[in-house]
């Protein structure tokens, strides 16, 4: 059963790869390939067409940003005017969207090249087959202002750095940690501290005094890694069995959001964190996160996947940490791996191909190795070298799927594992897996 489940996952990977290639080719032709509809457009015959009423709202938001100068003020004005996100009616007649803009929504709208007639794909843009809503002059002015604001906020002279997690950080007893600041030699330091230290800041009590920048960088890093770990993200959002096209959209949007999260725009970082985080808890050996699943769906722009039952909205993640006292501060060290687990698509494809060829031979779909070699235009010795990989231990397959294989394991080394031991423990030993 484990083998069947593993290769079902392989088949999804192969299908997703084909879809990715098709999406890339279509986007280079300027075609709209689905996903959440941006405000200002509708889809007719699989093409983007301008929704005149919504397009006027988009132009207004761009003009207001030029007038007001910051997304914070833009959001306040949008709320005052009652401007909301695009309302979408699902096939089951339930409604999503139509809610006040988050700052993150506004940042994305103001930087979405669709509005000047371009199709974005993996950091590149291509001339689209749809009409633009925003003229080039307005677009250039807004991008310049956003870039200038970003540089200003990242400047060392901006000493009044905001606390990104105010009201979200708690200790092991459920007590909130408060923000505090101190100055030394003209430099400002920020902390999250226990309530008992607020009135006695120089106390040697066992209360918490955590450097704010360390805490915030740690939280940003861990969420960034989650967004980059596609398999883990799919599992947490319960999307493993969804259509490959949706999973491809998830990958693209997660990569975009991960990049935006480590952007130097502090205001945007704060918006993302406060949107998806319900709570950050610290104990002597663990940091835990309570994240909103629905908020992640919204930021990833896959709102069609939001479950109608919102009772299980909270996701809790735990990471092991080590606390080290340094003077009056506490230094945090994350013991869990900082690098997100990433499945190697070449290894996955290799094993899926081996299994597929074996199934074709076993079912009689093909008569011989020679027939496969002729069809694939490769030497038959290459096929005989790969076929034994259809009998890898299920635990090895699972580890490869989740990106937990040894760094030394490559397509080349796996192909040259000859002969393949029949004992699964011996296979793991030969390939360098943990026993």
UniProtKB/TrEMBL annotation:
One of its GO terms (molecular function) is DNA binding. Residues 38-152 form the Recombinase domain. InterPro entries: DNA_bind_recomb_sf, DNA_bind_recombinase_dom, Resolv_N, SSR_resolvase. Keywords: DNA recombination, DNA-binding. Residues 1-30 form the Resolvase/invertase-type recombinase catalytic domain. The keyword DNA-binding applies. PANTHER family: DNA-INVERTASE FROM LAMBDOID PROPHAGE (PTHR30461), SERINE RECOMBINASE PINE-RELATED (PTHR30461:SF2). This is Recombinase family protein. The lineage of its organism: Bacteria, Pseudomonadati, Pseudomonadota, Alphaproteobacteria, Sneathiellales.
């Amino acid at each position: 059963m484990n083998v069947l489940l593993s290769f079902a996952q392989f088949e999804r990977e192969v299908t997703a790869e084909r879809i990715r290639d098709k999406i890339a080719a279509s986007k280079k032709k300027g075609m709209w390939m689905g996903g959440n509809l941006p405000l200002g457009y509708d889809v007719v015959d699989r093409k983007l067409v301008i929704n005149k009423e919504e397009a006027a709202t988009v132009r207004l938001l761009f003009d207001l940003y030029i007038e007001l100068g910051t997304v914070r003020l833009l959001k306040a004005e949008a709320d005052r005017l009652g401007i909301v996100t695009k309302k979408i009616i699902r096939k089951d007649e339930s409604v999503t969207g139509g809610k006040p803009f988050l700052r993150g929504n506004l940042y994305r709208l103001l930087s979405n090249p669709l509005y000047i007639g371009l199709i974005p794909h993996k950091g590149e843009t291509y001339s689209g087959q749809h009409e633009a809503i925003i003229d080039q002059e307005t677009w250039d002015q807004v991008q310049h202002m956003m870039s200038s604001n970003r540089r200003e906020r990242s400047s060392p002279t901006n000493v009044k750095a905001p606390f990104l997690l105010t009201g979200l950080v708690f200790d092991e007893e459920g007590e909130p940690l408060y923000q505090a600041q101190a100055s030394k030699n003209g430099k400002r330091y920020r902390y999250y501290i226990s309530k008992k230290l607020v009135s006695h800041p120089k106390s040697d009590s066992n209360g918490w005094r955590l450097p704010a920048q360390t805490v915030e960088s740690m939280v940003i890093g861990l969420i960034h890694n989650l967004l980059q770990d596609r398999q883990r993200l799919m599992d947490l959002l319960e999307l493993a069995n969804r259509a490959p096209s949706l999973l491809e959209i998830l990958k693209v949007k997660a990569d975009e959001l991960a990049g935006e999260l480590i952007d130097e725009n502090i205001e945007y970082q704060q918006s993302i964190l406060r949107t998806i985080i319900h709570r950050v808890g610290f104990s002597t050996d663990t940091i835990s996160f309570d994240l909103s699943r629905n908020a992640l769906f919204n930021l990833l722009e896959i709102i069609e996947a939001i479950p109608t039952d919102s009772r299980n909205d909270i996701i809790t993640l735990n990471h092991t940490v080590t606390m080290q006292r340094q003077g009056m501060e506490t230094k945090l060290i994350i013991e869990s791996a900082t690098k997100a687990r990433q499945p190697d698509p070449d290894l996955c494809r290799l094993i899926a191909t081996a299994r597929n060829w074996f199934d074709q031979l076993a079912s009689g779909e093909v008569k011989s190795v020679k027939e496969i070699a002729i069809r694939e235009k490769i030497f038959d010795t290459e096929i005989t070298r790969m076929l034994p990989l259809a009998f890898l231990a299920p635990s090895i397959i699972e580890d490869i799927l989740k990106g937990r294989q040894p760094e030394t394991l490559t397509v080349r080394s796996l192909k040259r594992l000859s002969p393949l031991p029949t004992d699964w423990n011996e296979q793991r030993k030969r390939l360098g897996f943990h026993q």
